[in-house]
Predict the structure of UPF0301 protein J1792_02125.
Amino acid sequence: MTEVSSLTGRLLVATPALSDPNFDRAVVLLLDHDEEGSLGVVLNRPTPVDVGDILQPWAALTGEPGVVFQGGPVSLDSALGVGVVPGEQHDQDDRHAAPAAGDGPLAPPRTRPGRADPIGWRRVHGAIGLVDLEAPPELLAAELGSLRIFAGYSGWGPGQLEQELVEGAWYVVESEPGDVSSPDPRQLWRAVLRRQRNELAMVATYPDDPSLN
């Protein structure tokens, strides 16, 4: 079985067998995954709401489409920023680092001692990190390669995601920084599967309506 801490920063790609309408053809970026549970955001659920309508100061830093994405069914009235800082290298220690006391799933990013992470950005995995939306946008304007704003998130209790993996609800694959800012998010499910170097590439051709197969 995969170690619990090893899935942070990876993608959960919904299998065709997953029946939950909240996650039909979903691609979820895991932002936190340990023995206490899991938290992530759905990358391919754009909403009609413009970022400028709710977070005007950050609108200029978001890529196309410049809308808010529904990160999941939990806490839809909260906003979460995920940003890519180009040039950041993978740091394996970050993947296993325990959260500091008082850090919740949506706690503001902190600058880590001894690290060169930009102020207002906390690394999650490689070049991908959480953005402190309460910080002045100009602090990150020169650093961010891309930014996406999510309303709500996806959460699993202790052992819940592991059980779903056993049941075959998700494929687990490596993420790429470009997944966060895909200009065509509705095609992300097929695009992520298509780039796999195994039988998962064939799943990308699975019809939206299985009755048409």
